Each structure stands twice: as structure tokens, then as C-alpha cells.
């Protein structure tokens, strides 16, 4: 039985200057749930200012709670999938649409909901929101604040966040799928360092271990690549910060670089990317179940340059998407929701005749 948290406990823990250590993970989870969820599972914010504001403009998403009916637009969101580029998230949105059998009304197409922000892209496919997050922790941080507020305004219940990305493998071949166990910062700490009002604050970069194991269990023996779980190093730079010799600057030797990568490997680090600590720290702080699934696009023990052919890269980048889609399908099926999505009659009755009709029409341009 999870421990019960009272208002009195809340006050003790809420005061930044009197953080009381939790007895164990279970107590911390119960406390986090208390401060981040209403009793019906909808998202509660750890910021009392928001509900006092006349309106909340989610500036980088080109959305607002007074300009848009966010509950109507996003209230059914169950999964928020994020990846670096708008193109990858557009691909994922179309892919997941097919995978969950979600059908757009005739003549409609997916629209980038955040197009007017010119910052991030966002596509909605039924219960799945697909959002680009850009590169590096500052970009993800801004997006996470607004996405968590979006979940709150939309009254989403227990949303799950998953980052789908690329990374460099350490002793791991290109094409391998890596599920992050722990996200580590440049000093191998399992936390993200914030500077708030000039002070250094650390928040644990914890991901959901059960979700990581569940994702791993969905890898198939028939997949022509490995799917592994391991520690992920998150850096603030792609070049010197990841020990590359090929940046505009490099003031260390190849031997020093290799010794560093070896040290990482001994520490259990299997991959390097640039967003996992902030993603883990902010989802954990918001009590949101989250996972990071990346594909290695090179093995850093063999070099620094990313030079796999375009088609190979494209196929590799689909691999985390395939794993995540298996998970989403599984959850929807368990909740009896997949059937209702698949229940719609598809608009194409015969692909062969469909192609024929399209070609005929084009011929009469
Ligand atoms: C992986 O790839 C990007 C750098 O090329 C960065 O966003 C990351 O984490
Ligand atoms: N992304 C990174 O951050 N590093 C790599 O080596 C590859 C992708």
C-alpha cells in the first residue's frame, strides 16, 4: 500500500529550503503523485501562479488557454512523443496513424498545430501527440514547461512522455536501439543541474524503470538489430563535449579521447546524446512516466563523423519509432481503445484499384 501523504507533509516538502529526505522511493513517489495529480489522474502543476493568471500563453507552441479550447483539442492525449526534428515527428505522426489505425476524415490531412510558432512542430494523431524538441537541453527545457502546462490546461490523465532520438553508441554498432536506464550529466551525475535565481539546483534525472523494461520486452527476436538498456550520457555539446576530434576546436589527443570513452564504458554508459537529463528531470518533477529510446547512428569507438548513407540512416531512425508504436498499440489494446480506432472503415478498399484510379486521373490533367 502506497503511503498516504497529507497537506502537512506537502508543506514540509514544498519549502525549497527545508527539503526533507524521503524515507524511500515509494514515499517519494507517493509525495510526487500527491503534488502532481488530482484525484482523477489529471495533471496538477507544482506552480500556484498559473491558475491565478488571466490567461496562459504557451508562446513557443503558438497556443493559449484563453485563445484555444485546450481541453477539447488535447484532452484525450495519452502519449506525448518527442524527437529532435520536425521532419522526424511528421514521419512518426504518419507512421503511428497507420499503426493505430487512426483515420482522418476524407480530404483532411495532418497539420502542424504549432506552425505559427516557427519554433517547434506538433502533430496530433488521436491520443498521440508528436512534437519536435530541437537540439540540446535549453530547447527541451522550454518545450517541457509548455507541454506540461498544456497537459494541465487540457486536463490530460496520466500522460506518458517518450523521447525518440538519435545518439552515438559506445562500443555499440550503428542501428542498435538503446533504451535509457539512467540519464547522466557531463560529470556522470544522475541529475540535471539548473541555475534558478542564481542558485544551483539539482533535480534527479529519473526515468520510469518499469516502462524501460516494458519497452525492452517489446523488442522482437525477429528484429534484425539489437535493442538494449543502458546508461545514457547527456552533454551540452556535440563536439568537444562528446570528446570528438573533429570540431572547430580540439585541445585533447586521440589517446585522451579513447581513454575517456573507455571510462564511460566502464561506468555502464552505452550512448551519448544531448537531451536525456532535462527530459528525465522535468518529467520526474512533474510525476510523468517517461522513457528515452534512441538509435545509435555510429559507434564512437570507431570514429566521430556521421557518415552512414541516407537510406540507412532513414531506416535506423524508424527503429525507435517501431518499438514505441508497439508499446502504444499494446496500451491502447489493453484499454480497449485500439479496436475503436481500428473500427473505422478504411477509405481505400483496394490499393491496386486506388493506384489505377489515381494514375488515370493524373493522365487527364
Ligand atoms: C542527438 O542528435 C543531435 C545532435 O546531432 C542531438 O539533438 C542529439 O541528442
Ligand atoms: N547525437 C549525438 O548527440 N551524438 C552523436 O554522436 C550522434 C547523435
Automatic annotation (TrEMBL):
What is the native source organism of this protein?
Answer: Drosophila lebanonensis (Fruit fly)
A Pfam family of this chain:
PNP_UDP_1
Family to which the UniProt record says this protein belongs: Belongs to the PNP/UDP phosphorylase family.
Where would I find the Nucleoside phosphorylase domain in this sequence? 78-329
Q: Where does phosphate bind?
A: 119, 163-166
What domain of life does the UniProt record list for this protein's source?
Eukaryota
Residues spanning the signal sequence: none
Q: Name one GO biological process term.
A: nucleotide catabolic process
Which residues participate in substrate binding? 242, 244
Q: Which GO terms describe its cellular component?
A: cytosol
Molecular functions (GO terms): uridine phosphorylase activity
The molecule here is called Uridine phosphorylase 1 isoform X1
